[in-house]
Amino acid sequence: MKRFDDGTVAVNDLNFDIEEGEFLVLVGPSGCGKSTSLRMVAGLEAISGGEILIDGEAVNGLTPRERDIAMVFQTYALYPHMTVEQNMGFPLRMAGVSADEKAKRVRAAASVLDLEVLLNRYPRELSGGQRQRVAMGRAIVREPRVFLMDEPLSNLDAKLRVQMRGEIARLQRELGTTTLYVTHDQVEAMTLGDRVAVMHDGILQQLAPPGELYKSPETVFVAGFIGSPPMNLCRATIVEEGGGLAAKFGTFSLSVDPSSIEKYPLVRERIGKDVVLGTRPECFSIATEELPENKHIVAKVDMVEMLGAEALVYLPTDAEQIDSSMTFGNGAARKVASADVQHLSLVARIAPKTVPSHGETVSLGYEADSMHFFDIETGHALR
Ligand code: ATP
């Protein structure tokens, strides 16, 4: 827990364990408290309540140096007057490591990071990606118990970011060093993390392997945050229909298949009530044959974004859109005044061969077993 002097609670009730050798990513929007959490683990920020253990040892009272961790920040802060070799060896010099041992460790790190030919260069003679690798090298040579990384790729351009992302993943696997990594980028989180902790407003929303976060989000916030384009989220009413259940949203209706009910069993208790319905864009497809009612929706295409391998098709609906971050920001739904109601512009991810044109009326089928349901008040999954 972290309460700043001005009363701001940046981190609230954050409990988790990181396994030995694990790569754990803390992800969330700006201001959710992830950097503060990392700085508390590093010892750069005093904690207002709770305990931090490394290897079972409470480190609350230890200085950053005594915690045996190495941090990599988004600004690499290399010393401009030192060469790559001197920059990388600097922490070892400070720790009183012998010259021989220092040279050995710097060479080993340079080889892992492909920096051998750059050892005599100065930071101003390096590209952004190379500087970032030197910053990583400086962390590696210390052979710490834990790596802490705070948005280390955010100053790089998109292409380099993807390349460095792969290098960080490979490096961490090779070294096997326990890593806590902070980012606001959900794609980075999903590709790097063995497990991903999603934070919002200082509160841990869910901690799970990437695939599970995507398949089984525990809250509306996670549902709306993980995935690109995000899940379609709208207000729906659960009704009984032909011996089963259906979700009505605006003038649309889709039947809820048994496997979705199995996954979200509390839906059965919501007959006649409103819930949040989540549908993934890729679960829609253009119907090529006539589908039974309640197995498809019919809507008019408003916009098409052709991305090459796929197209994003936007279809306006009269269902009330649910904003995952605003509405459930404090754990409970704000009652939306009717004048404020935003209507859902449904996004479908469609194979390029079947892309409709602007203004066309289409029939969209939905993969029956991939509906998501959440409590309209609390934003929690109905299970
Ligand atoms: P970003 O991605 O923008 O860095 P973050 O998720 O890392 O965001 P933090 O930097 O941890 O968020 O900040 C969490 C909250 O704590 C924010 O509301 C921020 O304004 C507040 N905060 C951070 N530092 C202080 C401080 N020294 N005093 C008061 N409030 C602070």
From TrEMBL:
Keyword Repeat appears in the UniProt entry: no
Gene Ontology annotations for the cellular component aspect, listed alphabetically: ATP-binding cassette (ABC) transporter complex, substrate-binding subunit-containing
InterPro entries the record matches: AAA+_ATPase (IPR003593), ABC_transporter-like_ATP-bd (IPR003439), ABC_transporter-like_CS (IPR017871), ABC_transpr_MalK-like (IPR015855), ABC_transpr_MalK/UgpC-like (IPR047641), Mo/tungstate-bd_C_term_dom (IPR008995), NA-bd_OB-fold (IPR012340), OB_MalK-like (IPR040582)
Swiss-Prot/TrEMBL keywords: ATP-binding, Cell membrane, Membrane, Nucleotide-binding, Translocase, Transport
Top-level taxonomic group: Bacteria
Family as reported in the entry's similarity comment: Belongs to the ABC transporter superfamily.
Protein name: sn-glycerol-3-phosphate ABC transporter ATP-binding protein UgpC
Annotated organism of origin: Histidinibacterium aquaticum
Name of the gene: ugpC
